[in-house]
Amino acid sequence: MTKPKIAVVVGNGFSISFDRYSKLSFQYDSQSPLNWPIECPSTKNLFLDSLPHLRRFIDENKEFNDFDTFKKINDLRHSSSHAELNKALLEARHYLTLAFSEYTLQQKALLKSHETWPWYQWLSVHRDEISCLVSFNYDILLESVFDKLNRSFFSLETNNHGWGVPLIKPHGSVDFEMAPNCIVGLTPSYPMNNFIDENDTPIIRIGDHDLVKPRLQAHCIIPNEDNKYLNYQWVKPAYDVAKERLKECTHLVIIGHSYADSDQLEINEILNSTNKNAEIIIANPNPPEKLIDYLKERPTIKWRNNGGPVDDMGKLLLLKNLKTNRMLTKCLCRSGKSYVYCHGKNK
Questions:
Q1: Do 163 and 84 share a structural domain?
Q2: Would you report the helix, strand and coil content of the chain in percent, each value rounded to 5?
Q3: Domain that holds residue 126
Q4: Does residue 138 sit in the same domain as residue 177?
Q5: Taxonomically, which superkingdom (predicted)?
Q6: What 3-state DSSP class applies to 255?
Q7: pTM summary value
């Protein structure tokens, strides 16, 4: 029996799990980022006050929660040519990029003292079996975990080293920035004088010390927005690399992804590219019904514990035999699932 090859897809639930475990959610509610007290790197005042078009839209639509606000901006932008909405959308990208930069630096600091977080423990146990990573999150919590585990990874930035586990971030990332010399003669600042967006240029990965500085181009898809980056040079080739890994994987673990309408095309493509015999693990206290329906007869396992990848006794749910590092024994009923998740104690 072979060793497992595990592909991991993470959504916002991965970060929510850590935030609750570390108590960071008391300071940063990831469902309400517009309420975070983010400082403008240029003026040192409240960042939203340096984003007048976004601020105006929020003030005029106080009945909306944060995610409905972003959706409304995007919907109206597609039904109107009003320059104000286009600028509000672009300012939203910059707000989310810098807000989640500050937030993820807090995550990174807290991770040092929260190695007992179940997902950290689980990734540590399966460290050498992870073959592919896809993150739909702006934050770099997943990257921080792999750095701490000393497991190399790379994306398609021009300054990547090109070895380790391929990491695809199709919705952008707080540590992505336009490569130098793509646009010259401009110094980014807030309020914005230059509205730069949707340029398919090479990107670089920036360090922690640059995360909360003004950006030339913010690389993030706002919530409920269709992914306009799909054919970009740092997304499509990355997905092509991922698909080759997915063909060979024995397990696909989807952590905390809501399967929102705007994301279904991408998630379905990942599922369709995954080995048909692979076990699909949906790690979510409330597995999306549409996702379960899409999987149909494929071998699907649900991990529903609010605490993460643990059973009711708090013991880690594993995808390998710890003594041999080999895959778990498949059930004789031909469900395609490991026995322990089909008829065993973790059924």
A1: no
A2: 40, 15, 50
A3: 6-21+113-171+232-309
A4: no
A5: Bacteria
A6: strand
A7: 0.95
